[in-house]
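Notebook B, p. 112. Complex prediction, attempt 2.
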Amino acid sequence: MPKFSLFSIRASLLYLVIGGSVGGIMLVSKAIGVWPWIWYWRTAHIHAMLVGWLLNLIFGVAFWILPRLDAHGWRGSPWLVWSASGLLQAALAVLVWASIWPWSAAIAIASSLECLAAIAIAWHCWPRLQPLIIEPRPAKTSKLD
Amino acid sequence: MPTLARYYIRTAFVWLVLAFAIGIAMLTSQLWALKTNPLAALQIVFYHALMVGWVTQLIVGVAIWLFPVHSREQPRGNENVAWAAYATFNLGLGLRSIVEPLLQWAPSGLVKWAIVGAACLQVAALWLILLMLWPRVKAKVSKAK
């Protein structure tokens, strides 16, 4: 598994447990009326699960598993996927920040960052979405020859 | 495909069917033209059946199957952790799906504490999933000596 995929998939697992734990606290709050402040974190919970968990996982698995660009296993320049990931983490950081200190522009800024991340990952993946190209190996010479 | 992955993926399909059944019930109930629609309480159950029961469980099932193996002796790591995650995940989500609408329909102390129990089971399941998958997100498949 390449370095970017390791980072992205591990980040996605962390978002799953952190976002899910926030959701669990929200559910407890709904049932017994404790910690009402947790409801400010609702948007952050939804984004952590839909963007942090799902998109990070998809980015990581896509970079790892999509067809390579040549017979040497070149996946393409990784700067685009790292940029996509950076934009995604920045969007999530903005949302978490805005959950704690409400900020009216947060949703617009976070959505714009997520949109840029989508463009970057699409740009990286586009040339890799092709039939598998494997250059034929030179024919082996038999030991008997 | 390993037995574990089959259980996760088949159960994910069960949640998909349940989610659509709930969706159909909610949409049909809008035709009754009631002042307050009691099935509106199922909306949160619908979202979680779809995104947690179906999407997340399918992803975890496929990850168990396709992620790099942990070791030759234990290709999927400690399977007890994976089975514990499976049980807590589905018990938590199932219990939540039953008791969360009851909080609106027939609230009681028992319902409230059942929701707290469901929340704890769901959060525990996510941490067990992290424990199960984290060691399998790695650069190379380790080979037994």
